[in-house]
Specification:
The chain contains seven helices and five strands. It has about 160 residues and is an alpha/beta fold. Helix 1 packs across helix 7, helix 2 packs across helix 3 and helix 3 crosses helix 4. The radius of gyration is 15 Å and the shape is globular.
């Protein structure tokens, strides 16, 4: 239970905050989107295009379920909350931290969701996705850190305070 797993919407800062928090805590940092790209030898958006959303989610579930780490900050993709095996695994190996940001904050940060490899079904908007995932993030979270109205450094400081030993 000595890992920190960040969940949240794309553009919530999982990787950015994760890298700095890992460095300051003396932890390893693991970005599972990069693990997926390495294993599949393809960009996320291309995997989604080639294998479809369900195919991508199956890959995401498998790779996240197999992460073995000690004293690591792990940043999975935002869609990991659709992956029951992965989330069960993460709850067993660490503390799940939901980096919560309002829809307004996410929409300002994200740019074009499709170019980021965001899992969006045809006709689904970013707002729809936000509303759909919010309940899942809350369901799996052990800790919720609200980012609205805060700087990146404020959020990092809160993570450090919660987890330094």
């Amino acid at each position: 239970m000595n890992n920190i797993i960040f969940i949240g919407m794309p553009a919530a800062g999982k990787s950015t905050i994760g890298v700095v928090a890992a460095k300051r805590l003396g932890y390893e940092f693991i970005d599972t989107d990069l693990l997926i790209q390495k294993k599949e030898k393809s960009l996320l958006k291309d995997i989604i295009y080639e294998k479809g959303i369900d195919g991508f989610l199956a890959i995401e579930d498998q790779i996240n379920s197999e992460v073995e780490a000690e004293r690591a900050v792990i940043a999975p993709g935002g869609s990991v909350v659709y992956c029951e095996n992965a989330m069960r695994h993460y709850k067993e190996i660490g503390t799940v931290v939901y980096l919560q940001a309002s829809y307004q904050t996410i929409s300002e940060r994200i740019g074009d969701p499709k170019k980021r490899g965001v899992v969006l079904y045809d006709g689904q908007t970013l707002k729809d996705l936000y509303e759909e995932r919010r309940g899942l993030f809350e369901k799996y979270a052990d800790v919720i850190i609200c980012e609205d109205g805060r700087t990146l450094e404020d959020t990092i400081e809160e993570v450090i305070e919660k987890f330094k030993r």
